[in-house]
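Supplementary Methods, section 5.1.

A reviewer requested that the exact input to the structure prediction be made available. We therefore reproduce it here, unchanged from the version used in the analyses.
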Amino acid sequence: MTIGAWAALLASGVVGGASLCAAFVVRTRHIWIAAATGVVSLLAIVASLAGIWHGAQRADAIVASIFIGLGACLGGFALASSLLPSVTWRAPSGSLREPARSDGLSHLILLADAEPEDYEPAAISAAFADLEATDVPVPPDAARVLVYASERARYGQLGGSPARPTVRSLAIATSLLMRDTRFALPVRAAFCDGGPSLADEFAEAVSAGAARIVVALLGVAESRAFDLAARDAAPLVAAHAGLDVVYTAPLWSATEAAELVARRVVESLGDSPGADDGVVLVSQGQPWQWDRAYPTAGEHATYFCQRVRADLVTRGLREDRVRLAWLDWEEPGVTEVVRHLAALGCARIRVVPATMPFDTVSTLLDLRDSADQAAVDAEVSVEVLPAWGDDLSVARSLRERILECSQEGPEL
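The structure derived from this sequence is encoded token-by-token as follows.
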């Protein structure tokens, strides 16, 4: 009986620790399953302790069993956290399909590095795996569960991310603008992480008779995310002899997109920018480990922001009060730049996700938090503006890029 109680204690502790880990990670609608498992495990632990006491009748046995049960819980938590990458693994997409007879048209795919609409543990696991693969330091397994819980809470606070709905809206707008061209419509939306992936949409286009596919990059610069999406889709392209795939240039030199950002800043200032107004043009940033493989990412983001800056100066803002900042990974950060502008005497400061085509959890929460952490005087007005969104000027910029490579295009 005592041996059975000890075994039950160990098993219950491991299950209880694993259920606690799961409670941090699973989607909100599944927390009750983890909670119920945890309660059952706790009751089993109590019953095991009672069985040990009944069999041993010794205080030291109970003390030892408590510590052993606690160790089992910690072991179960650590085991579950180490298994997260495999448990949340996402199966590859983009299965081969029999190509239909060519329709003679170029098919369009809009590729975006947009986060899922709802919290997905697999997306967090994929991000960690990507960082680890490029030697970017990440938290230990047991601490990562807090990142999952934080991301779930952030999604819950917003009720979901608007990123992918914005991309789909832009795909529709671009389709409408492309009606007078020899392209197959509608424009398909694909995403760098999750589905539908670029490989999925390649398969759909091939089954619809595509002999040529043009992929429009919805971003300011070429990036690791775009590169990985193209690599994942490459085997499918290679399997279909004669399939021609070209990628548009990113939007770093898109005049209309830059004008959109500048126009929104001026409108937020009441069409009367003055010497006491400041602007923070924010780019996403990337780990320095990625700069070696993707050096143009930062260069293109900086170039785009400089174009916006020049436009704002033309519209009346002082050049020294339009500053660049980074949301993640790089310096200067948003908080530092907001404080600097306030110290220069700016009474109105506008923080703009300048190079971000769509709002995300980060732009809606982290960007605002970074601005608030500046803790400037109450008389200083700090406002965070939205990302580009589905403004028609963005769709026009995409159309321009598509037409530029309608005959020839570089492979990504």
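The radius of gyration is 26 Å. These observations are discussed further in the main text.
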